[in-house]
Write a structure and sequence with these properties.
Elements: E1 5-9, H1 16-28, E2 36-40, H2 46-52, E3 59-60, H3 79-84, E4 89-92, H4 95-100, H5 105-117, E5 121-126, H6 130-134, H7 138-150, E6 161-165, H8 179-197, H9 199-204, E7 207-210, H10 218-222, E8 229-232, H11 239-246
Helix pairs in contact: 5-7, 7-8
The structure holds 2-phosphoglycolic acid.
Length: 249
C-alpha cells in the first residue's frame, strides 16, 4: 500500500503572523484518515513552523534548494542549512521555478542529486504546457522531463522520492485536469518507473497530482488508482479548504 499524501505549497504567501495563524488552525484539526500532511511555508517561516508543529504530525517542507553544498551563491539555501532547522524534504522542479527562474533539466538534476546526497526527501514536479497537450505531445514531454533528470537515480534512493504530475495549464488557473486525464498520465508515469526501475519501485513511489485541486474535485481525482494524493497551491492557503481536501480520500 502506498502512502496517501496531501502537501500544501504556500509559495510566496503568508508573512510570519499569517503563517502562524494558518498552522494553528491546521494543527487543531484532528485528522481521522491516514493521510500524510505536509506544508511548505516560505524560507523565512520554516524554522518557526517546525517549532510550531513539533507536537503535530504535519511535516514542514521547503520550496527550493540549491544544487551545491555551500559557497558563494548569494540568496541561496543549502540542504545542510535546512537540515539544521529540522527540514528534510524539499519541492524540486515546480513549473514556476522552471518558467520564471529558468531551472532547466540540468539544473534540476543537480538539485535532485544534491538533495539525495544529503539524505533529503523530495517532491519532484513536472508537467506539460497547454501547447504540448494541444499538439498531443504530453507523453513525450513527460518522458523527457523524467528521463533527463531521474534515469540515473540509485534504486535505493527511490524511497526518498515522491513524484508530482502538475500540468502547467492547470496550475493556479482554476482549470483542473479531468480525473481521466490525470489517471491516464499517472499510469504512464508508473509505467515509466516500471520500465526503467522495475515493478517494485513502480508500485512503491507515490505520484501526486497538482493543478487547481479544490474541495469539489479532490475526491474524484484522489479515487483514481494511480493517484496517491495532491500538491495543493491556492486551496492550501484556506484552512477549511485544505482540511476538506485532506479528508477527500
Ligand atoms: P494550484 O497550484 O493548486 O493553485 O493550482 C498547484 C501547485 O502549484 O502546486
Amino acid at each position: 500500500m502506498r502512502n496517501k499524501i496531501v502537501a500544501g505549497n504556500w509559495k510566496m504567501n503568508n508573512d510570519a503572523d499569517e503563517t502562524e495563524a494558518l498552522l494553528n488552525k491546521l494543527k487543531k484539526y484532528n485528522f481521522t484518515n491516514d493521510v500524510i500532511v505536509m506544508v511548505s511555508p516560505s524560507f523565512t517561516n520554516l524554522q518557526k513552523s517546525v517549532i510550531n508543529l513539533s507536537d503535530s504530525k504535519i511535516e514542514v517542507i521547503a520550496q527550493n534548494i540549491n544544487g551545491s553544498e555551500k559557497g558563494a551563491y548569494t540568496g541561496e539555501v543549502s540542504p545542510s542549512m535546512l537540515k539544521s532547522i529540522g527540514v528534510s524534504r524539499v519541492i524540486i522542479g515546480h513549473s514556476e521555478r522552471r518558467d520564471y527562474y529558468n531551472e532547466t533539466d540540468d539544473i534540476l538534476k543537480k538539485k535532485i542529486n544534491n538533495a539525495l546526497n544529503n539524505n533529503f526527501n523530495l517532491i519532484f514536479c513536472f508537467g506539460e504546457q497547454i501547447i504540448d497537450r494541444k499538439n498531443k505531445k504530453e507523453f513525450d514531454i513527460i518522458n523527457n522531463q523524467l528521463s533527463n533528470t531521474l534515469l540515473e537515480i540509485e534504486k535505493s534512493d527511490w524511497s526518498k522520492i515522491i513524484l508530482a504530475y502538475e500540468p502547467v495549464w492547470a496550475i493556479g488557473t482554476g482549470e483542473n485536469a479531468t480525473a481521466d486525464q490525470v489517471q491516464e498520465m499517472h499510469f504512464y508515469i508508473r509505467n515509466w518507473l516500471k520500465i526503467n526501475f522495475g515493478t517494485k519501485i513502480s508500485e512503491m513511489v507515490p505520484i501526486l497530482y497538482g493543478g487547481s485541486v479544490k474541495p469539489n474535485n479532490a475526491s474524484k481525482i484522489f479515487s483514481q488508482p494511480d493517484v496517491d494524493g495532491g500538491l495543493i497551491g491556492g486551496a492550501s492557503l484556506i484552512s477549511n479548504d485544505f482540511i476538506e481536501i485532506i479528508n477527500s480520500f
